[in-house]
Amino acid sequence: MRAPWLWIGLPLLAAGFLLLMGTTRRAARSAAAVALLLALAAWRLPIEQPVRLAGSWGFRVAANMQILGRQLIITDAMRGLLVWLFLALALWLGGAGVARMEPTYPGLAMAVVAVLVAALAIRPFLYAALLIETAVLLSVPLLTPPGSVAGRGVLRFLTFQTLGMLFILFTGWMLVGTETGLPDSALAVRAGTLLGLGFVLLLGVFPFHSWMPMLTEEIHPYAAALVLLTVTSVGGVFGLAFLEKYTWLRESATVARALLTAGGVMVVIGGILAALQPHAGRALGYAVLFDQGLALFALGLGNVQGRLLFFALWPARIVAFALWALALSGLGRRRDGLAYRQLVGLGRGATWLSAGAVVAPLILAGAPWFVGFSSRLALWRAAAAHGLLWLTLFLAGSGGLAAAAFRLWGALFSPGPETINAEANDEKLWMAALLLTSLALGVLPQWWWPHLKQILAAFPHLGP
Amino acid sequence: MTWHGYWPDVVAGLLFVVGLVMLMSEDWRLFLLSLAGVYGGTAALSAWTWPWPLAATVLVGGWMAASILGISLREAMTPVRRARLSVIVFRLLAGLLAGLLATSLVPVLQRWLPPLPVAHLWGGLALILLGMWQLGLRGNQPLEVSGGLLAVVGGFIVLYATLEQSLLLAGLLALVMVALALAGGYLIVQAAATEPPAPAPAEEEG
């Protein structure tokens, strides 16, 4: 058995079958089960080591696979990353039925994640840019299912991702042979600038972030949030691979400063603009920008703690955005839109959904006791160590996101037309489960923190 | 120099002309014909450094992309539009500006890249700039966005072909081209399906 077959081939095959299923619930349950199994396999199955079944019977999972003269390699050190990716996918796919997504959603989401895993596994790793682009193109039918209108957000998303891919591919050629040695200063500036531009477009770094709020405004929030989070999270890991491979890039003070600055600006812009939006979907898009800003700031710290914090943001990202997107799906369905004026008075009839929609941004802002608190507290401390300005930026961003939550609360619980649709049992159950999960993960960070440390094992030069 | 020596310059010039026609055209049939021409030129220039079978993947991928977009437009029963003269003149001037900009950027790229015929540099760069113009000027329609991105990718292939010769790269780039067209075609059909029906023409009185 080969690891790329198991974690890339199998999900792609499963995606094909899932696309043939007629109902969302069946497809979502099957897809979540497959994703859970793959997460379990990543947790329990060692790679390139014998696995004993019974007596002298056993097998070994090989790490690599040849494809058109290049290799797909999933090493034992990457298992931690796979566990988190497939766990997150299982959670999001499980909620697809509750969000009343199209029947094609689980299959397409599974295919997108499988291609993104291939992007992390391909060698030479520069080809990852092409695979990320393939995942982006696969996500187009996910974002605009039959019967929906494709707005400008999707077109802009496609444009920025394609241009970003080309910049990164081009830089890859420039960087050949500079893995360990320092390139001459002109080459370093050129390659660094082009690479930076590629990642700025790929990750939606300010000021190239306009597609994020546009997507979450025009598209179903559950589809838009999944695509935004998977593409930007895997794009971030791809960025880490560059830091891992090129010593001069990893040790460059200019790169660290650029990451800190970009991160700080994104945190403050994302938080404050989230508060100023008249649309709950757009606020969600700006929250993604805020969260990306935190991740870039963590990388910009330039030390092991910062890289650990980069991954420590993941649990909050997975759970809080699922909670928020799921809640907004339910609320938007009841009023045929997510503008605050449309949501007025909905809170009394849809209490659980409203609670989810209000608590999620607070979790992302760093509310105590919840899952995002420990990582944000560590980042606030790191920001304070860099200077009062950074801490002020962080607090302004978090304050903005909290203000967005209270603004939504105000709209939901203002006197308005009574809602006719009561909440379904599955909606209540998922809201309660996600709220409890975010609370449990927040109170007991020692549960997940050691597992996140394992992810860094895939990057030996960046780890402890 | 024999006529053979001028061949890359001729192809680069033709590539620019078809790119310019693509930018100016409002009629989707001419637009797609130009896109097919762009990929003919891209494959011809790539064939200088790539083996022919590899360059053929670019041609096949590009023409498949144009066909997919064409089929989608027919499926969506897109009417043929005609641009006003002022729009055509504006786009022509913008396109010529892209050509001038490419000319001024060639010396810079010559310092950045390994020795490469000027025709390749200029052709690739001009095509990228024309594609960017397309995205900037008409970036809210699926056909124009897909076409613009395909033009940018085509220009990139002309430049990148000299740097990397890999079967997987050529295959993935062709896959990206076709997938871009599929995504564009899907969005075209979606937009047509969700558009409100056009009002019936009012009957003339009297």
How is the secondary structure organized here?
The complex is a heterodimer of chains A (464) and B (206).
Chain A (H helix, E strand, L loop, with lengths): L2 H17 L4 H21 L5 E5 L2 E4 L3 E4 L2 E4 L5 H16 L10 H17 E2 L4 H16 L8 H23 L10 H19 L7 H8 L2 H25 L1 H4 L2 H24 L3 H21 L3 H9 L1 H22 L4 H4 L7 H15 L7 H14 L1 H25 L12 H19 L1 H11 L9
Antiparallel strand pairs in A: 1-2, 3-4, 4-5
Chain B lengths: L2 H22 L3 H19 L5 H24 L9 H28 L5 H20 L4 H19 L6 H28 L12
Helix pairs in contact in B: 1-2, 1-4, 1-5, 2-3, 2-6, 3-6, 3-7, 4-5, 5-6, 6-7
What's the short story on this structure?
The complex is a heterodimer of chains A (464) and B (206). With 464 residues, chain A is mainly α.
Describe the structure.
Chain A has helices at 3-19, 24-44, 79-94, 105-121, 128-143, 152-174, 185-203, 211-218, 221-245, 247-250, 253-276, 280-300, 304-312, 314-335, 340-343, 351-365, 373-386, 388-412, 425-443, 445-455; strands spanning 50-54, 57-60, 64-67, 70-73, 122-123. Chain A has 464 residues and is mostly helical. Chain A has three domains: 1-123, no CATH class; 150-251; 265-464, no CATH class. Chain A has a three-stranded antiparallel β-sheet with strand order 3-4-5. A two-stranded antiparallel sheet of chain A has the order 1-2. In chain A, α2 (24-44) packs antiparallel against α3 and α12 (280-300) packs antiparallel against α14. The longest helix of chain A has 25 residues, at 221-245. Chain A is globular. By secondary structure, chain B is an all-alpha fold. Chain B has one domain (3-192). Chain B contains seven helices and no strands. In chain B, α2 packs parallel to α6 (142-160) and α4 packs across α5. The A-B interface holds A 67-70, 127, 130-131, 133-134, 137-138, 140-141, 144, 146-150, 152, 154-156, 158-159, 162-163, 165-166, 169-170, 173-174, 190 and B 112, 135, 139-142, 145, 148-149, 152-153, 156, 159-160, 163-164, 166-169, 171-173, 175-176, 179-180, 182-183, 186-187, 190-191, 193-194.
